[in-house]
Design brief:
It contains five helices and three strands. The chain has helices at residues 3-27, 56-69, 75-87, 110-116, 127-141, and strands at 94-95, 99-100, 105-106.
Length: 149
Amino acid sequence: MTTRTSWRRRFPAALSITVALLLAPALLPQTPALAVTTTANTVPDRVCDYHWKKGTWQLKQLIRCSARRWQVAGGPDKAVAVARCESNLNAKAYNPGGYAGVFQQAVNYWPGRSKTFGFKHRSVFNGRANIIVSIRMAHRYGWSAWGCA
């Protein structure tokens, strides 16, 4: 067998192996454990994993971590300052004007905001949800929604 004949026989086999290897990931079934992408309106449970119920220090760490993670204007110090001004870092804070939580979210807009920013069906008084939704809002729209900003 000549070199030319050998090459003609090997090339189609090499090409089909290459194509199979390139297409293999697309053909595998995607399970939640294997999926690496997340949608824009979901927040992984392990992002900024601080227990906000354990005290002010943990709450501030959650705010700082979230502000770094979503790169808000003014950074972590600005985020903590806004939360301190709005609610004195109290997750159960309520204003009779219809604002609640650490960042004093408008209660009537909360269901839509929490769904948009990854915490559907969470209370406005849930510190983690209130903080991350507020930080993500500040990242997207700036601090103009808060009077203390």
